[in-house]
Amino acid sequence: xxxxxxxxxxxxxxxxxxxxxxxxxxxxxxxxxxxxxxxxxxxxxxxxxxxxxxxxxxxxxxxxxxxxxxxxxxxxxxxxxxxxxxxxxxxxxxxxxxxxxxxxxxxxxxxxxxxxxxxxxxxxxxxxxxxxxxxxxxxxxxxxxxxxxxxxxxxxxxxxxxxxxxxxxxxxxxxxxxxxxxxxxxxxxxxxxxxxxxxxxxxxxxxxxxxxxxxxxxxxxxxxxxxxxxxxxxxxxxxxxxxxxxxxxxxxxxxxxxxxxxxxxxxxxxxxxxxxxxxxxxxxxxxxxxxxxx
Length: 294
What we know:
The chain is an alpha+beta fold. 27% of the residues lie in helices and 27% in strands. Helix 4 (178-188) packs across helix 6 (221-227). It starts with a strand and ends in an 8-residue tail after the last strand.
């Protein structure tokens, strides 16, 4: 049996630039892999059965995990009847949290089979795009500037000054349905954002992170906060702690704040306990995921 780490990601900032005729939105975002992860255990030559459970260490359990045709891993196996693994999925990444959990599971499984068949992982790119806009990112989950519908990526190394980066995740007691948030965004009539014009660094350092994240501005945040007003309260309180950058990840509901190191995080977030209790949020402290260990 092969044990695979399936990391979550944050959207550090998110701009919506337009919409394609097929309805997909064009975006710009700094994708950042984090150490919160699911575990995908694959045993080949079995029956193609998928079992899924919440890990005891999951920071927030958000409902039942689908294991039938609604599970993205089932869709991969249905498209590849020659693959007959049993899969045990141990979830830690909350669903509906804007952290890419299902997409990560799919990208992780495609990476596994690319490696098993001695193929370049790029061979799986087309299939990943068909499964979902975020799935291609998880074929190589490194810090990356992501554009298009999520399929175009410029990966970047991390400057040594960011190796101690500490990130506080705030996990509300609800998830956000991506389709509903995009529908509300569309109905709001909010204008599309202009494309940024950045010179991408070879190694992303503190100032680059702040610049690319756009201060954490997220074009989907007003829609999510209209639906769930507590999100506005949480992001405001995180901003009062003087983080490097803070905001809501993706279409929500996870909010985050980035600090230089764990000591800085612990010092600056001491005053958050009351607001977290009043909004019934859970928290998790994470670092940058090292793709080399997955």
